[in-house]
Amino acid sequence: MPTTEELLARIEALETRALAAEDYRDLMNLQAAYGYYVDKGLFDKAADLFARDGTLEIAGRGVYVGQDRVREYLHHLPPYVDGTIYNHMQLQPVLHIDSEAGTAKGRWRTLMMVGFIGREGRWGEATYENSYVRENGKWRIASLHGVINFYAEYEEGWHKGGVALLRSTDGLQPDRPPSFEYEAHPKAVIAPFHYDEV
């Protein structure tokens, strides 16, 4: 028969595993919710998923610091209206979670379908290297860094090259310069990994 101390140790270990599983689920839902909100132009809801001092960096356009600046950046994206496709599917997660510290890091792939009827249709794909923090009991995005691997015109395909990255956002200056300089396909880019092994 196990001793009381051994039983208490087992219970503690199970509680630790249960918390880790809950954190994994919550982080998966957090990142997926971000994708769904951006898809439909619900930019305030997307911004609310960021920590108060969270950052956003996409396509080498610089870093926007703080939830209010993230919100401002998102509101400069195209609105979701009739004739718009703006899908950002959040796929292939690799998560490393420190439940006790309330911090986590994640690598994701986003597959993008972007189109405006009568104007353009594009495929895109990016790697996210993100960090997360538990704030007021809820997981929030501490940093979202989207490294665009390619944009390609739908009718031409990526085998004919790619669309050059737009390096700025009209009417909006970043708070910090890009983390690193790069160009997307046909140039080869590898987003820095937050992990060496799994």
TrEMBL record:
It holds the Pfam family SnoaL_4. It comes from the Bacteria. Residues 21-144 form the SnoaL-like domain. This is Nuclear transport factor 2 family protein. It comes from Aurantiacibacter gilvus.
